[in-house]
Automatic annotation (TrEMBL):
The chain crosses the membrane at residues 283-305. Keywords: Membrane, RNA-binding, Transmembrane, Transmembrane helix. Residues 54-132 form the RRM domain. GO terms for biological process: germ cell development. The keyword Repressor does not apply. GO terms for molecular function: RNA binding. CDD domains: DSRM_DND1. This is DND microRNA-mediated repression inhibitor 1. The keyword Nucleus does not apply. InterPro entries: DND1_DSRM (IPR044448), Nucleotide-bd_a/b_plait_sf (IPR012677), RBD_domain_sf (IPR035979), RRM_dom (IPR000504).
Amino acid sequence: MEAETWTNSINQTNKVALLAWAKETGIDLVQINGQRRYGGPPPGWVGDPPPAGTEVFIGKLPQDMYENTLIPLFQRVGKLYEFRLMMTFSGLNRGFAYAKYSNRHGAKEAIAAFNNFEVREGYAIVVCKSTEKCELSVDGLATSVSRQELEAVLRRVTEGVLSVTLYTSPCWKRAQLAVLKYTSHQAAAMAKKTLMEGNVRLGGLEMRVDWLNPDMKQKLQSCEKKPSSSRVQGSKCLGVPKQVPQSPVLHNVLDCLNTLCQKQYLGTPLFLTKCVQADANGWLWFWCWVVIPGCPVPFSGFAWVRQDGTGRSGHEEAKIALALQVLRMLGCQLT
């Protein structure tokens, strides 16, 4: 079944009702990178955006419920500046949303009125003040990854990056932890979704992406920051090596691509993979994307893969398939 047909067949009745409501009310809903947004600003808004403390988090939503029910409900207690509903690839919502009001009074009224409110029989939602966090922690980065290289990749796959700071990982040996600061909670949330759902790897290690914990932030700030330059004196150089061994042992296609990029000083490849369909015979259809810092454009495409009993996940098989295509496009002959 084609992906578009498959996704359109899910929750079709409510999707049709949503479209009819949007047409009737003239409300414009824009979907970008896994979230659907109304307003920000809404029609007729004049002046600056509302201050901090005006946004509420809405959780435990029925996944087949959309804005035609939610926006009128939350507009009962105040003027909405923005409403964001988090979406899955299939068109269902992810069970949570954010509502930003024109003032703090509206947010307080929403919490008082709708926390533990049953939007449907048996479905009591959670409404509370949004934390509006703007910082992420990314643990498990390879020690060969430099700050400049990581920042360049993040600017390609996420929006609103303000700063990137590298520390020695407090949890993993021979690994780094990065603190990423974004312009807004929305930008940080979208970056977190992209990095987590993309099953990202940098330098061969699995990255752990989460909101920056206040205790972790304090611990990191009490430690000496790692040098941001790739040049470190002495034998404990953690930057990109100046010379690569002449004949590395290539265990698989990913090793081959990493080695080629190191030899050409292109930077460490970053993979994003997402399973978008699975059939009854065990085949998985993956969307794949690889960013190589030294290449002007990313490589992307779709691939059918199947786990072959080697212990590799479908994501690993998809990365291997894309890496093979990239090597061929770069003119590399595999032996």
